[in-house]
Design brief:
Blueprint (H helix, E strand, L loop, with lengths): L1 E3 L15 H4 L5 E5 L5 E5 L8 E5 L2 E3 L1 H13 L7 E5 L2 E4 L11 E2 L5 E8 L2 E8 L10 E2 L10 E2 L10 E2 L16 E3 L5 E3 L11 E6 L4 E11 L4 E5 L5 E4 L6 E3 L2
Parallel strand pairs: 1-9, 8-11
Antiparallel strand pairs: 2-3, 4-10, 5-7, 6-7, 9-10, 12-13, 14-15, 16-17, 16-20, 17-18, 18-19
């Protein structure tokens, strides 16, 4: 949902109740080291339900730049990502240019949520309290991201924990070109797919890397109907042939 702040021309000035970003009420927060989730952020004062907590800021980049950076991070074996997709072709990268909001951890039962707002014609992302938050309580929101790289266990500890961080599309709704292929949805549970003649060259998939024991992204570059082999683009320059009937893979949304 997209919300809208009053513009700078609002006659209510500082009395306006619809200027969450311009007036920026700054709640005191503290960076902490958690037991299982790296750094985290806690509230150092009470925050009421619906209140603006902090803005998610960073470098605004397009989809192409985002993809290039993800490939680079993957090659360098990064495990932490601070990229937030705001809209089509607009991503906020808080990796090097951000504030404390990037340290807010995931929870399957969060106490805050991200909201997109239009402020003077520009889209901005704010984090708002879903309920009253007590002093000393860790701030969390549901990442709801599509996994890039290895699956990550969730350590949020909530009663509704989904056990894994991130989401993926059901494998049953996608079929690779000419493949009686197998894929993994729950820690490599092998499931047969139906054969289809549909061509899916150009589709993005995640492929289980047996050597590094993690999922890696790849692009279906070509298919040889005589050998039954698919050519996958593993990074910007590397291609490799695979018999997808023998691989553990899944489509990325």
């Amino acid at each position: 949902m997209l919300f809208s702040c009053c513009s700078s021309n609002c006659k209510c000035e500082n009395n306006c109740a619809n200027k969450s970003f311009q007036l920026r009420p700054l709640f005191k927060t503290k960076l902490i080291k958690t037991e299982k989730c790296g750094f985290g952020l806690i509230a150092e004062e009470e925050i009421k339900k619906g209140e603006f907590v902090i803005e998610y800021v960073g470098e605004v980049i397009d989809d192409r730049t985002c993809e290039e950076r993800l490939w680079k991070m993957k090659r360098q074996r990064y495990t932490n990502f601070y990229l937030c997709e705001v809209s089509s072709n607009m991503v906020i990268d808080a990796t090097n240019k951000g504030n404390k909001s990037r340290f807010i951890n995931h929870s399957c039962e969060p106490n805050t949520e991200m909201q997109k707002w239009t402020v003077d014609g520009e889209t901005r992302v704010g984090i708002f309290a879903l309920r009253d938050i007590q002093r000393g309580e860790e701030l969390t929101y549901d990442y709801k991201f599509v996994q890039f790289g290895a699956d990550q266990d969730c350590h949020c500890g909530s009663s509704n924990c989904r056990k894994m961080v991130g989401t993926s599309k059901s494998v049953n709704s996608f079929i690779l070109h000419n493949g009686n292929s197998t894929s993994s949805q729950d820690q490599h549970d092998m499931k047969k797919r139906k054969t289809t003649s549909d061509n899916c060259i150009g589709e993005i998939i995640r492929l289980w890397d047996r050597r590094d024991k993690m999922y890696v992204p790849a692009v279906v570059h070509d298919y040889d109907e005589y050998t039954g082999m698919h050519t996958l683009l593993l990074d910007e320059e590397t291609t490799e042939n695979f018999d997808m009937r023998e691989e553990d893979w899944d489509f990325l949304p």
